[in-house]
Every structure is written in structure tokens, then in C-alpha cells.
Amino acid sequence: MTTAPSTTPAVSSPDATAPGSNARATALSLWYPRPAQRWLEALPVGNGRLGAMVYGGIGAEELQLNEDTVWAGGPHDHDNPRALSSLGEVRRLVFAGEWDRAARLVDADLMGVPVRQSPYQTVGSLRLLFPGLDDDAVTDYRRELDLASAVHTVSFLHGGTRHRREVLASAVDQVIAVRLTADAPGAVSLAVSLDGPLAGEAFTLAPPGPGSSPGSLAGTATLALDGRGEDVDGVAGRVRFRALARVVREGGEVSARDGRLHVTAADAVTLLVSVGTNHVSWQDLSADPARRAADPLDAAAALPYTELRRRHVADHQRLFGRVELELPATAASTRPTDERVASFAEDPDPQLVALYFQYGRYLLVSCSRPGTQPANLQGLWNDMTDPPWGCKFTININTEMNYWPAAPTNLLECWEPLLALLRELRVAGARTARASYGARGWVAHHNTNAWRATAPTDGAFWGMWPTGGAWLALTVWEHHRFTGDLDTLRAHYPVLADAARFFLDTLVPDPTSGFLVTCPSVSPENAHHPGEGGSLCAGPTMDSQILRDLFAAVAAASELLERDAALRAEVRAAADRLPPMRVGALGQLQEWQEDWDADAPEQDHRHVSHLYGLHPSNQISRHTPELMAAARTTLERRGDAGTGWSLGWKINFWARLADGDRSFKLLTDQLTPERTAPNLFDLHPPFQIDGNFGATAGVTEWLVQSHTDELALLPALPSALPEGRVRGLLARDGFEVDLRWADGALVEARLHSRLGRAARVRAASALRVTREGAEVATARPEPLVITFPTRAGATYLLRPAD
Ligand code: FUC
Predict the structure, then answer these.
(1) Measured between alpha carbons, how far is residue 126 from residues 163, 223, 275 in Å?
(2) What's the predicted TM-score (pTM) here?
(3) 34 by DSSP, 3-state: which?
């Protein structure tokens, strides 16, 4: 194959804006001058449920396919029947400091059965072979993912003919569409096949059309692949799926041979791909995969490709188009995307920050839509049957991080799958609460999956953490803080209230301090002492922080909804008995009740769980200067190194500490080939999408913060980004925020008030506020906070006061 150098000027192309013009603006595109050789070079498309990784091959193209309900195993109850009777002894051992013995008992009696939760699995691949196309005879190749339209395009010249291929995953029409065209008639010939590690042989569905010769099919032809999710440790694989690929051709011929469809000399071809499963819910697998696959395919096949595309782009833009971030382009910005990552640390390229930010939004829109599964460890995209950490929902940081950008970047709908997960975990986790703890309410530990597993998994060291569900439940309250939406709060209030009930029943007084603590627990995955039980403890700082937020949320929500006065009193009383945050001998925020930090075996551990209080929570803020200083010391001691998601979290921490430059430095550490794949997927390594989402959220924290009682404008602007513009960020209390800044200072802000709540705005300079030209308020220079009432639906202009 001939690789067009990135500096190749545009060649003549039927459409001046078409790929092939390497010099064109790339502000919202990932692009490459060569096909992907491996999965981490391929580019993702997704409609929330169906996903494809597109390689952009010339003679051989591959779309690796996912459907988000294809998981191993099936509905399953992991509760360990011995858990409840051993709980008391485990608590005794933990309080006695006999952590290794406690761990052995937890592993024997408290872990889920089987201990391993079922993983998410790949469907397989759609493969296209183009017999006449010789990779070495191609020029002016370009593949590109345009984030604004969510269309993947490949374009190249071969023997004087320009070939163009588009791929999109439509949420409106529930198919993946592949459009193959050329600027010469009869130039599209290919063989289409489907295969997958969980499936049998592909077969053709359509009968030969009337008058067709033997083996040849009428205008359309359909290939099918049936498969089943795997068994896991004695849990039967019960997900069944069917994948379909239908050829809709213009001109030429189509025939079926050897389990493949062969298209010869067509002018253009639309391939429609659909996957259906038997998944109805986490408890019900009674649907018919064949129907589920065929119905959207039949409906989509009735539409011309241009219409499918138009509907898809409009739908995507409705969500994606709400936020714009403009940061200046430099010479580096014209390079292929992977080269921009490689040079980011040396060559200024602010626009790559904007691209990476928007990529996070693109990924969330593409993997988390109302009605789909939530974003898992890899969002939606996974080419394995046994992926790292099962490609599940790890809820001791990863799933929460996936959703940090949802509200601030104006994608509230993308939260819906997480709210649905919570409604289901409340049911599944009530079983575990009862069976394993003898408690009311619901509990989930550090992982869950398609079957809403809630018992502890993986072993005492990692899994004995009862606070994962509570952290996730706080999504309900965050949703309310951003939207003021009482209906959603009312509908999900039981998730919050029952999460709190579990802890009201299971918190125990610490024999030494008297505070109410979780036990057994861990500070996620970090050891305070060496040994197999070295992570087990009672009342780690993070647990008390999460419970303080949970109890406060239940108290506030029950008050707003005018219900559960008794529960409100109970949670308030319990909150008062939680251990306070403490500053240790080194000036650090203590991770545990005891000051064990200095001797903990891994000083640079990737989890910084106890800074949950700093981000995403607001318990550590400018209102608690001593704790802010301790959080900073903790971060300094942990160091900047970390896995992808750990860097993503630290970007947010430093932004909350108002240190934009340190935060930017962490993003710079993330935007290196070690932590960012050629396709901009975040690398733990391996690929984990949480780092993408964490960084996207972190960028919003540079620009707007609203976690306390103030709305701060440019609270942590990195000096590397002295000028820019953002439109459409959301802040709590129902504000939509647009900002323009230059020379590192605010030029203008627009606040659109959705709820008509009072605005309390903090900025680095005094501000003058106007609405429709009339002055509303002017701030005194100190303190730099201006408060003014707003009217719902009105927009306020804020400019530095002279
Ligand atoms: C937690 C983390 C790991 C990884 C895994 C999916 O266990 O500690 O780093 O992110 O989740």
C-alpha cells in the first residue's frame, strides 16, 4: 500500500469537502493516512446498543461488532449462603487487626458464588473483501471519523477511480449502515462475510429472486450469524444473538456462495447490519433474536441511504451539537491524530485538547442512550470473549467516572442507562442486603454486570467494599442538582432511600472511636498493611464521605418530596456519628481512620479514594481550607504517575484545587502514546474508556465549577490555554454557560437560567451583569462573588466591570 504523506495536497475530488483533502480543517475529526492494522487503531461508531470498530481497510475491510446485551452467563444470584453467619466473626477479626484471618474468612464465606461475574462479549466481525482492489495501487488514502456527524469515511484513489466508503451507527433506525460508492460505474465488487468466536457458520437468508440464475439473488440478499454467550464457572450462557448483514445494491449482481454474499460490478452498495438478542431485561431472556435482528433491518432497507444518513446525522447533532469548545489550532493540529498525540508534550496543540474533550462526548453519545446498557469499562467496544476485568461495570471508580461528563457537557439523556441500572440494582441488591447482611435496603459492592450481580466478587482484597452502590446512587441527587427535575427525583427516590436504609442497618460503632463505621470494608484496592488482608478495614475515609453525601441527599430529597420524615431524622442522626475527615502527621488527608498512610505499601497507588471528598464530592472545598491543604499534600505524595483513569481523576482533583497548570500537566501525561491509543482510546493500559470520560469532565472543571454553592467561571484555566470559547456547558441549579476568554482572563460569559434560581457567580475579576442591555448587578471587587436573582428562560450577560 502507498501511504499518502500527511502533507499531500488535496487532489481533485468530486466534493471539495470530501476526505481526500488532507489540508481541510480537522477540528472535529480523527483522521489517518493509512488503514488500521490493529484494534486500537480502528475507529468506533455506536448507537448506544450496537457498536462497530472500523478498520478502514482497502482490499479487506473489517467492522468488529458489538451488541451491548451480549454477555456470558445469564440471570444469576451470587449470594453466598454462609455470608450472614460469618459476618460477625469477620467484623471481630477486622476490629482486632487480624486482617489476614479476616480475609481468609471473607474469601471463604462472604464472596459471591461463583466468585467471578460474567463478562461482556464480542459478537464477531463483518468482513468485506474487495477482489479488484490492490492496496499497493492506492493513492490519496484517508480515513476519518467526524465527531460532529458521527460518520466514518474512507476515501482513496485506485486506478483513476475514487472510492468512498461511509459507516454510521444509527440510533434512529437501529442499524449500522455501510455505504460503498465509486465515481465510475460498476466499480463496486466485494464479498461479504460474518464470523464470530461465539457463533457457528454464517448462512444466507434470502431465497433466490424470481428469474435469477442458480445461486444468484434478487436486489437484496441477507447473511445471518447465530451465536450464544459463553458459560462461566457453572453459570450457563443464555444470551442468544443473531447478526444480520443485508446487501442492497444499485446495479451489478449479487450471489451467495460458501456462506458469503458476492456483489459484482455494482454502481453502489448499502450494507445494513443489525444484531438482535433474546435479552429483555437482566431477569428475562425470552425475546426472539431473529425477529429482533430482522425488524429494524427490514424497516431500514425501505429507506434510501441518504435518508438513513440524514436522520442519523440530525439525531446525533441534536445531542452532540449542544456544546462547542474552540481552542486555537497550530501547525501541529494539521497532523494525523496519532501523530498529534505523539507530539503533544513538545508541540503546542490546544486544539487537540478540544478534540479529545469532544471525543469524550462523542463516545458517551455513542455508547449510552436511553434504553441501552450503561457505558461499561470499554464503553461498548470490545473484541474479546474474555476481556480485561470482564469489561463490566466496575463501580469503585470506573463506572462513576464514565458519567462525570454527562451533565456538565449537556448530555443529560446519556445518564438514563445509569439511572435504569440503579433501579435494577435496587432490586438485585435488596436480595444481597437481606441474604448476606440481614439488612433492609440494597447494596452493591465493587463490580456489577448485565445480570446486576451485587454480591462481593474477585476476593476480599478488592471486592469487600459495600459502598459502590451508594456512590452510584448519588447520581440521582446529582441529576436533581443539575436539572431541578422533581419527577425524576421522585421516580428514583427509592434508590437513594433504600441505599441509605442498608447503611442504617449495617453501620456498627467502632469499638475504639465510637463512630459509626462500615465493616468489613476497604479503601478501594489500596492496602494499609502488607498481606492478603491488608486492605480490609473499618470506616475508610471514602466510605464516610460517600455516606455523608448519601444521608444528606436522602434528607434533602425526602424534604423536597415531603415524605419519610422518620427516615430523614434517622439519616441525620447517623450522619452526625460518622467519623470526620482527619489530617495526618504528614499533613495529608488520612485514607483510613488510623494514620496509616506513611507506611502503606504502595505510596503511589492509582486509587486516591479518600479524595472523593474533593471530587466528585464537595466536602473538601474553599470552605474547608485545612482539608484543601491536606488534599493537596495527599496528591503530592501520591505523585502524578498513574493508569489512564487515575490521570483522569487527578485532572479533576487539581482543577478543584484551582491549579489549572498542574491539571493540564496531568492531561499532557495522558495525551501520550503510553496512555492514549492511536484512536484516542484511553489506556490503563489496556484500553479503558473511563480515562476518556474523566479527562472530558476535567476540561469542564477548568472552565466552570458548580459543586459548592457558587458558580465559578474559569476557576482553573491552564496558562497553556490563554484564549478560547465554550458554548453550552451546564452548571448545577439549572444554568447553561457560554464563556469567552483571552489573555487568560474572562472576556464575556452568558448564563442562561433554566430554573430561575439565584445565581452566585465567582470570577477572578469584578463583574457587571446585564439582561437585554439593562444592568442587573455589579460586583464589588472583593469578594469576587456576585449574587443576583434570575428569571427562568432569561439570559444574562456577564462582563468584567471597568
Ligand atoms: C479497578 C482498578 C483497576 C481497573 C479495574 C477495572 O479494579 O483498580 O485499575 O481500573 O478497576
Answers:
(1) 19, 10, 12
(2) 0.96
(3) coil
Cα(446) to ligand 1 centroid in Å equals 10
d(CA 498, CA 501): 5
Decide if 209 contacts 217 (C-beta within 8 A): yes
Q: How far is the CA of 767 from the centre of ligand 1 (A)?
A: 44
Q: Separation of 24 CA from ligand 1 center, angstroms?
A: 39
Contact residues of ligand 1, CB 6 A cut-off: 377, 389, 394, 398, 525, 606-607, 643, 645, 684, 688
Q: What residues pair up with 705 in beta bridges, in sequence order?
A: 712
Distance from C-alpha of 395 to C-alpha of 570, rounded to nearest angstrom: 26
Closest CA to 742 of 717, 726, 722, 725: 722
Which residue type occupies 620? I
Q: What is the pLDDT of residues 656-697, one digit of tens each?
A: 999 999 999 999 999 999 999 999 999 999 999 999 999 999
Give the separation between CA 262 and CA 216, rounded to whole angstroms.
9
Dihedral (Cα; 30, 36, 38, 44), 10-degree rounding? 40
Closest ligand 1 atom to Cα of 389: 6
The CA-to-CA distance between both ends of the chain, in Å, stands at: 61
**Atom of ligand 1 minimally distant from the CA of 646:** 9
Cross-strand bridge partners of residue 262: 191, 255
In this structure, the strands spanning 521-522 and 29-32 are: unpaired
pLDDT tens by residue, 249-276: 999 999 998 899 999 999 999 999 999 9
Strands 795-800 and 745-753, how do they pair?
A: antiparallel
Q: What single letter denotes the amino acid at residue 383? A: D
CA of 462 to the centre of ligand 1 (A): 9
Bridge pairing between strands 447-448 and 393-394 = antiparallel
Site of grid cell 500500500: 1
Cβ atoms of 148 and 71 closer than 8 Å: no
Query: In whole angstroms, what is the distance from residue 173 CA to residue 184 CA?
Result: 30
Cell numbers 478543584: residue: 656
- Give the closest residue to 344 by CA, choosing from 697, 26, 674, 25: 674
Question: Alpha helix locations (H) across 466-594?
Answer: 468-483, 486-506, 541-560, 565-576
Q: How many Å apart are CA 432 and CA 413, to the nearest integer?
A: 30
Q: 68 pLDDT exceeds 70? A: yes
The length of the chain, given as a count of residues: 802
Alpha-carbon distance 4 to 215, whole Å?
40
| Per-residue b or e along 434-454, where b marks 16 or more CB atoms closer than 10 Å to that residue's CB | bbbbebebbbbbbbbbbbbbb
Residue 212 predicted with pLDDT over 80: no
Segment holding 314, helix H or strand E: helix 305-320
Q: Which residues of 717-746 are buried (b: 16+ CB within 10 A; e: fewer)?
A: bbebbebbbbbebbbbbbbbbbbbbeeeeb
Cell of 224: 445471518
Give the position of cell 460490478: 265
Cβ atoms of 766 and 756 within 8 Å: the answer is: no
Q: What is the DSSP track for 662-724?
A: HHHHHHHHHSSTTTB-TT--BBSSSB-THHHHHHHHHHHHHHEE-SSSSEEESTT--TT--SE
How many Å apart are CA 75 and CA 577, to the nearest integer?
A: 38
- Range 198-202 average pLDDT: 96
pLDDT at 777: 87
Q: For the packed helices 416-437 and 83-95, what is the interaxial angle rounded to 10 degrees?
A: 90
Best probe residue, ligand 1, of 397, 402, 526 (max atoms within 8 Å of C-beta):
397
Cell of 641: 504517575
Q: Helix, strand, or coil here: 326? A: strand
Q: Determine which helix (DSSP H) or strand (DSSP E) holds 264, and give its type and residue range.
A: strand 260-266
* Beta bridge partners of residue 90, listed in sequence order: none
Q: Three-class SS of residue 735?
A: strand
Q: Residue whose CA is closest, atom 10 of ligand 1?
A: 398
How far is Cα 726 from Cα 353, in angstroms, rounded to an integer?
A: 13
